[in-house]
Amino acid sequence: MKKFINEADDVVDEAMEGFTDCYGNYYEKHPEVNAVILKEPRKDKVALVIGGGSGHEPMFNGFVGEGLGDAAACGNVFASPDPGTIYETALAVESGKGVLFVYGNYAGDNLNFDMAEELLEDEGIESAHVRVWDDCASAPKERLTDRRGIAGDLFVIKIAGAACDRGMELAEAVKVAERARDNVRSIGVATTPGQIPGLDKPTFEIADDEMEYGMGIHGERGIERTKMKPADEIVEYLYHNIKSDMELSKGDEVCVLVNGLGSTTVLEMSIAYRKLKALLDADGIAVHDADINSYCTCQEMGGFSISLLKLDDTLRELYDMPCYCPYYAKKGK
């Protein structure tokens, strides 16, 4: 697999340096660890720290900004940041109101963020976390907390960022971020693998005429491998899995994300959204806002995911608050 890199061991460091140099008006790199820090964060509020493995860009470092994360702790490719990195990242942005961590529900992240929280506790700094588990293909509903976090991370980050910027206390910000997490579902489909820089083999193998429903963003096994199908048929499968899992019904209102996994084009994702919108309309489910983009990727993986956030009055109000970073912006309503 051809990649535009120098040495594989330097990929994350060099990418972080390039990213913060390019967007130096907004960000600075932490001087000691791989973390992106918002240059002028609001003080006297709960600090929102997001993070996870590199290789899913622009998730997570690309979602630091106004109304979003105050900082992102970044690990190696497809690997959690270590506890020291998370701890130092939190210290850099904490301003006396505590720290809220938002990250995907993976064993390494859970362990390392928990350890970082213990270090903060030793310093007398209050912290809490919200683990995102939106991938409804990764475990059955009765094992909800075993599910993985994928593109639905973005909706939770958006709501949590708005809650923190509004000045909510830590406990209240946790509550609304958990409400967002509990009201978002995602599922994807993959057609080609991604490959970690420096490795000889891709994350998985699949025939040219095949696809796999429910594939994870690290190449984790999905729920069904089948021959390629028309876009409309694929979208129907994904939508009905989400609809049944989150019990959507007529009169509900949702935000929609069609997320590319790395190499899928906006043209293809637009065709997918066209069918998805028709299905939502037919079921009497209103679309409050929608987005087509590649926000949570797996290197050059082919495929896309669908995420739906079911709104209530509180979530709608927070979602409609303005936010800005180079990769994601909402004007506000």
Automatic annotation (TrEMBL):
Domain of life: Bacteria
One Pfam short name: Dak1
An MF annotation (GO) of this entry: glycerone kinase activity
UniProt record, GO biological process: glycerol catabolic process
Domain DhaK as annotated: residue spans: 7-328
InterPro entries, A to Z: DhaK_dom (IPR004006), Dihydroxyacetone_Kinase (IPR050861)
Entry's Gene Ontology cellular component terms: cytosol
Protein's name in the database: DAK1 domain protein
